[in-house]
Write a structure and sequence with these properties.
Length: 257
C-alpha cells in the first residue's frame, strides 16, 4: 500500500502531488497487487448521500431564522452564508446529490493538487487496484492554523452545527481505522470488485467530513461570520467588565452609592 499524504505550500503542493502520482502510476503498472491510499479534503466538490442533502436543507431552514444569520445575510449579501443545498443532477446510474465545499481562500494550487489525486484514484480503481480514498475532516493541523485567519475562523465555525473542527490525534485515529477497513474488508467500496453507480462515489462511502455536507451554508461562505463570532466571544468578558464599571460609575455619580 502506498499512501500519498505529502503536503507543501503553494505551487509546491501541485509539484509534490505530481511526483506522488508518477510513483503510484508506475507501481500500479508493474505490480498489479499495489493498493493506494489518499486523504481527501472536505473543501472540495463531492457526491453526497441524499440523507446529507436533506439534513443540510433542514439545517438551512433552522439557521436562516436566527438573528445573527439574518444580520450577516443583510450586510453580506450573496457573499456570506450561501445555501449549502443544490438540486440533484441526473446521469448514468440515477440522480446524484453533491456539495460544493471548495474554499477559494485555499487557492487554485490546493484545488488542483487534490483533484489530481482524485483522478489517479479513479483510474487505478477502474483498473483493478484497491484504492482507499476517504474524506478527512477539517483539522487544526500546524499547516492550517499557521494562517491566523483560518485559525480564527476555525474557532467560530462550530456555531454552524453540525460543523466541527477536530484535533489532529482524533482525525488520525479515525482515518487509520477507515483505511484498515478499506484494505481488509472485501465489501468496502475501495475494493474494485464492488460496482459503483458513479466513480466519484469512491470518495463518499467512508467520508468523515466533519459536518461540511450537512451544514446549512457552504464552507466558503461562513468564514467571515466565523471570525466575527470568535472575536465576539473573546471580547465578551471585556465588554461586560467595561459595562459593569460604567454602571458603577454612573451609580456613584448619581448618588446611589
Amino acid at each position: 500500500t502506498v499512501g500519498s499524504y505529502a503536503y507543501l505550500n503553494g505551487a509546491l503542493h501541485v509539484q509534490v502531488s505530481l511526483a506522488m502520482d508518477a510513483i503510484c502510476r508506475d507501481l500500479c503498472e508493474r505490480r498489479k497487487d499495489t493498493s493506494l491510499a489518499y486523504l481527501c479534503t472536505p473543501t472540495d466538490l463531492h457526491l453526497i448521500p441524499k440523507e446529507a442533502h436533506d439534513a443540510a436543507l433542514a439545517n438551512y431552514k433552522e439557521f436562516s431564522k436566527k438573528p445573527f444569520c439574518m444580520l450577516m445575510k443583510l450586510f453580506g449579501g450573496k457573499k456570506m452564508l450561501r445555501k449549502n443545498v443544490r438540486a440533484p443532477v441526473s446521469g448514468v446510474g440515477g440522480e446524484f446529490y453533491y456539495v460544493d465545499g471548495i474554499s477559494v481562500a485555499q487557492g487554485p494550487n490546493y484545488a488542483m493538487a487534490k483533484r489530481m489525486q482524485h483522478w489517479r484514484a479513479i483510474i487505478s480503481h477502474s483498473k483493478g487496484n484497491v484504492v482507499s480514498s476517504n474524506i478527512a475532516p477539517s483539522t487544526s493541523t500546524a499547516s492550517v492554523v499557521q494562517n491566523r485567519t483560518f485559525a480564527w475562523a476555525y474557532e467560530g465555525m462550530p456555531y454552524f452545527t453540525p460543523y466541527e473542527i477536530f484535533a489532529p490525534e482524533t482525525s488520525k485515529s479515525v482515518m487509520i481505522a477507515i483505511l484498515f477497513n478499506d484494505l481488509n474488508n472485501p465489501k468496502s467500496v475501495a475494493n474494485p470488485k464492488n460496482a459503483l453507480a458513479n466513480p466519484n462515489q469512491l470518495f463518499a462511502s467512508g467520508s468523515f467530513h466533519g459536518g461540511v455536507w450537512r451544514c446549512a451554508y457552504t464552507i466558503d461562505s461562513i468564514g467571515e461570520s466565523s471570525v466575527l463570532l470568535y472575536f465576539s466571544r473573546v471580547a465578551a468578558p471585556y465588554v461586560l467588565t467595561l459595562g459593569g464599571v460604567g454602571i458603577a460609575a454612573a451609580a456613584k455619580y448619581m448618588g446611589y452609592v
